[in-house]
Amino acid sequence: MAKQFKPETLCVQAGWTPKKGEPRVLPIYQSTTFKYDTSEQMARLFDLEDSGYFYTRLQNPTNDAVAAKIAALEGGVAAMLTSSGQAANFYAIFNICQAGDHFVCSSTIYGGTFNLFGVTMKKLGVDVTFVNPDAPEEEISAAFRPNTKALFGETISNPTLEVLDIEKFARIAHKHGVPLIVDNTFPTPINCRPFEWGADIVVHSTTKYMDGHATSVGGAIVDSGNFDWDAHADKFPGLCTPDESYHGLTYTKAFGKLAYITKATAQLMRDLGSIQSPQNAFLLNLGLETLHLRMPQHCGNAQKVAEYLSKNDKVAWVNYCGLPDNKYYELAQKYMPGGSCGVISFGLKGGREVSIKFMDSLKLAAIVTHVADARTCVLHPASHTHRQLSDEQLLEAGIRPDLIRFSVGIENADDIIADIEQALNA
Ligand SMILES: Cc1ncc(COP(=O)(O)O)c(C=O)c1O
Known about the structure:
Elements: H1 7-13, H2 39-46, H3 61-74, E1 78-82, H4 85-94, E2 102-106, H5 111-123, E3 127-131, H6 137-141, E4 148-154, H7 166-175, E5 180-183, H8 188-191, E6 201-205, E7 219-223, H9 237-240, H10 251-255, H11 259-272, H12 278-288, H13 291-310, E8 315-319, H14 329-335, E9 343-348, H15 352-361, E10 366-367, E11 377-379, H16 391-396, E12 404-407, H17 413-425
Parallel strand pairs: 2-3, 2-4, 4-5, 5-6, 10-11
Antiparallel strand pairs: 1-7, 6-7, 8-9, 9-12, 11-12
Bound molecules: pyridoxal-5'-phosphate (PLP).
């Protein structure tokens, strides 16, 4: 289906293709387990000699249908759903990095990911070096070591809204024989498909636009199937040498282009178990069915709100890559010509206290931790999502103390602007 159809059709139809007499709508396989006729049939599944379902911690038909839809939308060969975006990012790195390994990461990423990589993964012995994504190639290259196993960045960073130069990052990663992993949560594959620009693995917090209705926390990892693990076998023993927990099976030999996702499923999900519930996958699928309709509305509304804010004299600064004077306008036009995302950031004259007063005066836009919801919502990262970061770390991550993150929903743009106006006047 992936090659035949355009994204709009994939959003609605990919993943679940019912056969005669089967439900038209993707069913929720609310079953932990699956039945077999002989002990031998089940044993072959445990040895990865046959494909089939046996236990939902590893695979579930509802989840697999939704994963297949996301893989089709991104143009990848396979995907795996996880219980959250955090789990997706953890698995994406841990699938190829073990204690003693290192990876390089853009410093402008979501605060939760920054913490996961910079603190928690370090405790597991996986080291990270954060780099300024706008630095010249040689400077980013200098962060690589012999034990570096991946390069990581966000297409549009949350909440600083910097646009990643994906081709530059892919060049650097491939020069060092490692894959580029891109968190494509904010643009979604409707606005950007990182594989087309050289990324190897894509991750998502499906909690955001993909679900779109703020009902279900979830994540996804998508593999392009393009990275040649065997060409760098010394770096990736987990994929290119026998796995003792599967009787000496070697993932690249047994599964070819599906090696990375199969290992993530058969080994990491088996052992760590952060599976997405089939109920959540069902809700995610409903969200995906309208993703192609919602994204243009988010982007169109955000453009109008950004233009309004940039003309208002109470506003100190506006950051939205759809504004022609934005630092990332050219990159956004290159990678996301049809629109970027619905998230804007700005600061008010008078600084932090005025920004907080403004947020408290909003009536339509709600103060929530969430972002990328159908409903307009707002957050002050320095007081909320990033409060664990010191001022120094905040600035390192490009977050000003007065930064308001404004996630423009799919309501009428005039109503959103009227709400902002009354709050500015309050
Ligand atoms: C870009 C990005 N990646 C990952 C995450 C983590 O996702 P989740 O909240 O689903 O665990 C977030 C959450 O805001 C995010 O914005």
